[in-house]
Specification:
- There is one protein chain.
- By secondary structure, this protein is an alpha/beta fold.
- The chain is 48% helix and 14% strand.
- Strands 1, 2, 3, 4, 5, 6, 7, 8 and 9 form a nine-stranded mixed β-sheet that branches.
- The longest helix has 29 residues.
- The protein binds nicotinamide-adenine-dinucleotide (NAD).
- The site of nicotinamide-adenine-dinucleotide (NAD) has 27 residues, from helix 3, helix 5 and helix 10.
Length: 290
Amino acid sequence: MKIGFIGLGNMGGPMAANLARAGHQIAGFDLVAPCPEGVTKAASASEAATGAEVVITMLPNGAILRAVAAEAIPAMAAGAVLCDCSTVDVESARAVADQAQAAGLGALDAPVSGGVGGATAGTLTFMVGGSDAAFATVQPLFEIMGQKSVHCGAAGAGQAAKICNNMILGATMAVTCEAFALADKLGLDRARMFDVVSTSSGYSWSMNAYCPAPGIGPQSPADNDYKPGFAAELMLKDLRLSQQAAEAVNADTPMGARATELYASFVEAEDGKGRDFSALLPRFAARSRS
Ligand code: NAD
């Protein structure tokens, strides 16, 4: 397939490399990042999009996505599909989809979970919003870049699934970390706490698969001095998107709101920036109640 790939950063670079390795013809564009091996460098977003059957974008936020889409869409031929894999606000995802459809294109919002490790290994999960026809066109590419793709519904449904999942993740990680810090102060050994909770009703992905306590459970960023992993500032980005969406549809999300405040303070007023999002544990352990 002829593919345009715009945004070749930490995630987009390895995703484009996997598509090239599978034999697809990729024209890549990024303002800064170099083209990975096998990807032909385009001089602009519109050059990358010209003649492509599918254009994939992997960009930092909704404003940049809107700007790039405004350049790419006019260069695309009718029937081609614009597939955005970035994590952006639901409103931007729907606006870009509307614009693409008005130009006779297919459009998908297809944010991912799995991080840089998943992008490199080709084991991402794609959560996808858009039409059946557009999904069917891009599905073979999802299978190369990932191990699972779920068609969640119409435009915006992929972003909705992503921010709901990450709101659960942020709140669950926060309470898992505070529970470990409480256990410390109660004199409960962390390993015993893990043994009990990981097999009891408090279990979760945060506890069982990504335990924030060093030396306990499977290998996780806690065992590597809390180097990310999934950086706290990326968690903050996703939590803010969840609150933006909640406001737009008047949904009551008190736990999501509290997790957002907590990560905002950790990243912007404390030492959380650049650390894994599970580094809330040493934060709580060093603090007292007031
Ligand atoms: P990144 O900053 O490494 O990559 C983004 C790239 O976009 C950069 O290389 C930048 O130069 C490029 N870019 C910015 N503006 C551009 C423009 N106008 N034209 C062309 N290129 C432009 O970020 P990333 O970690 O690759 O994340 C990309 C997206 O994936 C984000 O939306 C992020 O939330 C999401 N995501 C990231 C992770 C992760 O673990 N890194 C996990 C899941 C989802």
